[in-house]
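Lecture 7 notes: from sequence to structure.
We start with the chain below.
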Amino acid sequence: MSPSDPLDLVREFFQALNRADLDRVAALYHPQCIVEHVFTRDGDVYQGRDVVARKWADEFARYVGALQNGRRVEVVRVAGIETGWGWVRADWSSAIADPAADGSRVETTGYSYFWLEDGLIRRHRNVGVETAQAPVRPADKPHATRQYPTKPVVGVGAVVIDERRRILLVKRQFEPLAGQWSLPGGALELGETLEAGVAREILEETGLVVDVGPMVEAFDRILVDEVGKVRYHFVLVDYVCRIVGGAMQAGSDVVDVQFADPGDLGSLHVAAKARDVIARALAMSEREAS
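Predicted structure tokens for the same chain:
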């Protein structure tokens, strides 16, 4: 069954691409779908689910994902388009390799247009440029005012669990929580998906590359000053994450980074709410492993 929300359906499409799940990719297309400029170095137009499925089968057979953990594409934004109901735009960067050609890579940045009909992809068109640059990021992203904001600031965080069931912590450099150990994370940027924001914040703060898993919890944190005026108001969304690359080092906004055993969180003065989120994430990962 496909998601009813168009944005969620497009996210699932890219997740299936990263798994090279041909059956799921094909199932998300409408029987009378039309795709344009979708396949590697192929500017043709193809019609019909069966034809498109065969093209994806050829694509998966020839190319493998060349991003971290074998992924093909990193999606940095999925957004609805105001010009018409059912239209969705996704911004992304992609890297694939051809094992038969000495592993030669094709790196692309671009975006896709999708038109959804009856809960399936009716039209799909890619616009991309081959490049060796770093993954594209949405442009013109002003930083939200965190102290005394005019509206809540959306923050993303991660419970990163290593193979020894330890938790990744950072020591904050700035308020709030300056000098305290906490979960890594930060403010979501304009035009950035929650998952992309989590991955970016972890890389910036800890040097680690992660796969973003399921959401653990969403909650708010409001701090007021001595006269009762709101100084901070965060809406926080935390995810379970798994390390797939990078090298651990303290980065932006933090003075130290470490892995800690869950039993040591109290002695490190990790906030009670963070400990609750960690406990829930550990339980989720245990259920997934069983």
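Points to note: The helical segments are 6-19, 22-27, 49-62, 194-206, 272-289. Residues 6-130 form a domain with the Nuclear Transport Factor 2; Chain: A, fold (CATH 3.10.450.50).
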